[in-house]
Structures are given as C-alpha cells and as structure tokens.
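Try it yourself: sequence plus xanthosine-5'-monophosphate, in.
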Amino acid sequence: MEKELVVVIDFGGQYNQLVARRVRECNVYCEIYSYKTDLQKIKAMNPKGIILTGGPNSCYEEGAPTCSRELFEMGIPVLGLCYGAQLMMLVLGGNVEKAPVREYGKTEVFVENSSPLFGNVAPTTTCWMSHFDYISKIAPGFEIVAHTADCPVAAAQCREKNLYAIQFHPEVLHTVEGSKMLYNFVRGVCGCSGTWRMDSFVENTVKEIREKVGDGKVLLALSGGVDSSVAAGLLAKAIGKQLTCVFVDHGLLRKNEGDEVEAVFGPKGDFDLNFVRVNAQDRYYVKLAGETDPERKRKIIGEEFIRVFEEEAKKIGAVDFLAQGTIYPDVVESGLGGESAVIKSHHNVGGLPDCVDFKEIIEPLRNLFKDEVRQAGLELGIPAHLVFRQPFPGPGLGVRIVGDVTAEKVKIVQDADAIYREEVDKAAAAYKAETGKDAPWLPNQYFAALTNMRSVGVMGDERTYDYAVALRAVQTLDFMTAESANIPFEVLQTVMSRIINEVRGVNRVFYDLTSKPPGTIEFE
Ligand code: XMP
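Structure, out:
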C-alpha cells in the first residue's frame, strides 16, 4: 500500500480516533501512535504531517504527557489540537494556564488573520470547545489567527515552520467547518495528494496476504458478523482454497442467519474457499438446558464454542496462520496504537488461539475503522445485508432469552425478531423515500427479546397462558450509553399485532423504554 502517511500522536483525548477518521476521509492514510512512541521511530515512517491530539491533563503539571522540542524541528508540519496545541506552545516557549472561564460546547470563533488552515472558512465560524486551560502567551515566532469571546488564542500559527495550534476540536461534527480545516492541513499544508482509497486497500492487502502466506494454510473462525465476513472475503480473494472458514451455528443466531452466511461463503456462494459449517445447535441446547444464570449461560456458550472449534481444527490439522477480524478501534483501545503485534482473543471467547495449532496470526483489517471495513466488504462483493448488519452479541440469542434456553424459545424469539426488524426497516425506508432523510427515530440497534414472564390472555374464545416478548430499540453513538429510540407508535402496534398473530406462544408485547445506564442494551 502506498504510504502517504499522517501520524496522529495520542495524548489520551476522547476524540482521537475521530481525528484519524477525518484524515482518512480526506483520502490520506493515517495511523495513531501513543505520545510515548520513540520520535526516531516516527521520523523513520517519514510522515507528511503530524497531528497532536487533545487529552485530559494540564500540560504544565509534573508528569503530564509531553513531547520533545525536536518534534517541531524535523521540518514536518505539525498541527496541535486542544491539549496538543497547548503543549506545542509550552514546549516552544509560550505559556499555558488555568483559564478564568472554562469553555465547553459550541462557541463562536473569530478568525482575525489569514492562515492556510482557514482557507475557505468563514470569518466567524462555530466550533466545539472543551478546555479548562488556555494559552495565555503564544510561543516566539507564532501569531494569533483566531480568538473567541473568552479565549484569546483559539488558533495560532508559525507559517514559516508549518506549525499550527488549534484550541478547539475540528474533528467533532459540532465544529461546522472542522473537516475543511483538517483537509486544509493534510492536503494543503502537508501537501498530501489524497491517494488512499478502499479499492487500493483491497488490491494492496490481497497482494500483501499472498506474499505473507505463500502456499501456507489459513484458518478463520467465521461468525457471520461484519468483521469476520470481510476478513473472509479478503483472504478468499487472496489465497482461495488455502483458506478454511469454520462457521459454528450454535442455534442462537437470528432467523435464517446460518443459511444466509452459508449462501455467501458456502460452496454455492461467490467465494472460492473451504467452508465448514458446524451445526452444533443441539449440542448447545443440551449444555444450556435448565441454566438460568446469565453469566453461566455466557460461559457455557463461550466454552462450547472453543470445544467445537477445536474439534474442527483438529480435523484440519496444523495450519500456518490463524486469521482474525481485529479492526483498528480494537488495536487502539487495547492501548497498543500499532506499536506491536497483538494476539487479540476472539471477541466472544477467551483465548481461542490456545486451542489451535498455528504459527502466526494474520489480521488483514487491523488498520481499518468500522465504516472502512464495510466499504471494503462492498468492494469485495459481500452483500449489503451482511455488510450493514447490526451489532450482534457473540452469545447471540442466549442473552436475549431471559432464563433458560430451549429450542422452542429460540424459535419464538427468532420469529418475533424477524417481524420486528422487517417492520422497522420498512417504516425507515418509507420515511426516507418520502423525505430523503433518515428517520430521526432510526435506531442503531433493535431486536426482540423473550422475557421469562408468562401471563394470562385471551385469544378467540380461549384462555391463553403464554410468553411476553420485549421489543428493544436504542440510539447510541458508542454503545456505552444509549437512549431508547422513539419508534412511531403505529409501527410498534403493527409489530405487536403481527407477533401476536404469527408467532405461537406469545400473548403480550412490551416496548422497553429503559436507557443505558441503568439498563444494558442486551437483556443478560
Ligand atoms: P450491553 O448489553 O452491554 O451491550 O449494553 C453493548 C453492545 O455490545 C453488544 N454485546 C456483545 N457483543 N459479545 C459481543 O460481541 C458479547 O458478549 C456482547 N454482549 C453485548 C451488544 O449487542 C451491544 O451492541
């Protein structure tokens, strides 16, 4: 892959991955490294530009994350954001102090001096501020470019040395012209030509995989989720039948999901690979029988997965590589920032690699963000319904059936969930067709769960004593916190009446209004 690289140096701010994403949106490849990374190592990567991120500390305090003066003397353009801006000023001889007024939220910024960073940006523009400290004195050689009502230095520059400092956060969408500023930096100041594209990623990665794998054998645990599916597509394109995918159907998948995965990756699908589907449904139901404790259920599902996978791996024999669908946020969140190879255990099972005889891990999506993984998936010809799949937990419907799991309950929740998703998708598509916009209530995750409550009802002239289905729909940015989505009442009513009429064993439907916290998104 052609590496016209911009390096983001991470000082622990909450928006750091966003900075890297915005740079990639300018078609410039970008990687995040910890501020502890040796400067010589960064220099050796020959970056076209460096961005210093925000961070939670005060840069003048002892022990606060810092950087050396040399970073600014390498002749590489540097852009400091928030903490990064303050640090740049402090290290180069300016001053940073606790601000008399804390700025937080949308703020008007007044651009007073011309700057390549603010090309095509309005003289008064809305930005996102979040800081306790402020730059009270700029470093020698710098000039102030912009200010706000409370902050005398909202942006400063030393054009001669290509050093730029911005107190606000251009990476956040609330900074209305932020993407333009980052574009101006990477494409203008750094002179990047913008050749980073997903099609070139696919092409280059396929080449790299071929070189690395040679005539070796690769094993991949395919879950049917977005990441492992795209990894399978890439590897299949690169090495065909040298790849074996093991897909374990644990009987806790959504309706028809096992067959959908097989249709794409199995012998009748478009990819040339060895596909092993293990129908382990009954095994799982036997193991789970009578178990009601959520943690025990999760553990049983995880352990059984290892056992099934191990059995299949034994049949295949030793392989040279174990492939994993690790993506960039996993790498960054594990604190490794691309510094060393990491063997990340499978998302949903502890320590999978231990049970398989392999020499090396291969992680073809290690440098991609989720939306880039999706783009690569489409490039590879993986169908949109797989590529744009909602997040689905590893333990599957096991955590959406409160109490013990039985084949009968799985069938109920699968059928109810399929109806619910169909109706929500239909309503969302109708809204979009009518207005050209996404529905404001469009959830990021929505599914049906089965409560373990049975209650009395009446159907026809008969008394019933059946289960209650709970409908969940949440809006969330990061899945750490979430709000219940405001799905139109008519849609919910349609779903309710279809479930009651079409799914046997259900006589009541609830809508879950709980936010997270205090609720979680899943039920167990
Ligand atoms: P909770 O229920 O913790 O879910 O609010 C947050 C997000 O994580 C997903 N989730 C899981 N994903 N293995 C996974 O791969 C799991 O065990 C698991 N549990 C929850 C959940 O679907 C939601 O998107």
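One thing you can check immediately is this: The pocket of xanthosine-5'-monophosphate is lined by residues 347-348, 391, 393-395, 445, 479, 516, 520-522 (CB under 6 Å).
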